[in-house]
Design the sequence.
């Protein structure tokens, strides 16, 4: 999967710490982290710079503030169905 990084200058680089739901497979986490870093340009209004990724459905994640629970966005995962079906 190819990612294109936009060369843009942000006033300040946001370093987001990410906590994952234990149900989220570890091989998907680097992809999720990339999406989060691309999408979150400013920390939560409560000042927390830590996000929690919870699994809503098999391929739907909710990215929210670790502190106050404000949802940033939902993230749909591209999962190879064959790896999940048994
Ligand atoms: Zn918050």
Sequence:
């Amino acid at each position: 999967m190819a990612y294109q990084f936009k060369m843009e200058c942000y006033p300040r680089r946001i370093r987001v710490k990410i906590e994952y739901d234990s149900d989220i497979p570890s091989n998907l986490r680097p992809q999720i982290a990339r999406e989060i870093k691309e999408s979150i340009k400013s920390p939560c209004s409560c000042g927390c710079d830590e996000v929690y990724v919870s699994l809503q459905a098999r391929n739907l994640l909710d990215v929210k503030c670790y502190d106050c629970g404000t949802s940033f966005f939902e993230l749909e995962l591209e999962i190879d169905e064959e790896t999940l079906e048994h």
About this structure: Residues 44, 46, 48, 65, 67-68, 70 surround zinc ion (CB under 6 Å). The helical segments are 29-39, 81-84. Strands lie at 17-20, 50-57, 60-65, 71-76.
